[in-house]
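Issue: ligand-bound run for coenzyme A - logging full I/O for the record.

Environment: standard queue, default settings, no custom constraints.

Inputs:
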Amino acid sequence: MVRLSPTLRWARAADLPGMASLIREQAAHGRMLPRSAGELHQALDGFRVVVDPYGGVLACGGLRCYGPGSAEIIGVAVQDHSQGLGLGRRIIDALVGDARARKLDRVFALTLEVAFFRRMGFDVTDFAAIPEKVARDCVACPFRPTCRETPVVMSLVQEAVGRWTPRRTRHRTLVG
Ligand SMILES: CC(C)(COP(=O)(O)OP(=O)(O)OC[C@H]1O[C@@H](n2cnc3c(N)ncnc32)[C@H](O)[C@@H]1OP(=O)(O)O)[C@@H](O)C(=O)NCCC(=O)NCCS
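Outputs:
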């Protein structure tokens, strides 16, 4: 018998109810912030989903761009029964790949699951390091005084700088 495995793909409008219900359930557990249907609809273009063979949404997560340089990872959630199977990692890897394809300098997230994001290669930072997010959302957020979320960030430019620096040094040595 052929066993069909979950598929990772871009989210479609038809996935919106499944995404909304998944995020609502995880938010009800107090593990993430809720997202309104309108918010998800607006951000749909940047979302990835993992679906079962019947099209049920098992996991989701999206990129929300801030200008040319950075994007926020939002709405990362995995169904309770599918957690611990690598689906969260598949979503994060795909989103980081999407950010690289868009030539972004960095991706960041606000999260209650700091250990998970650290495992995915993110570093803990502070709100001063994500002024674009603070200006867009945090300033007007009614939960700001009691916010428990931690900012985490992944730089996407370090490798390029590392490759470039030695070449420049060698060139200087040759002409000097
Ligand atoms: C956090 C969440 C997305 C993780 O998804 P998942 O599919 O269970 O995680 P994976 O199976 O892909 O785990 C990947 C790695 O992260 C580790 N990991 C997963 N959850 C973790 C956690 N809460 N703390 C520390 N490490 C964690 C796993 O052990 C695994 O490590 P490994 O590579 O050494 O094996 C999922 O538990 C979830 O949906 N939580 C509720 C919503 C939420 O917290 N969203 C976070 C954004 S706000």
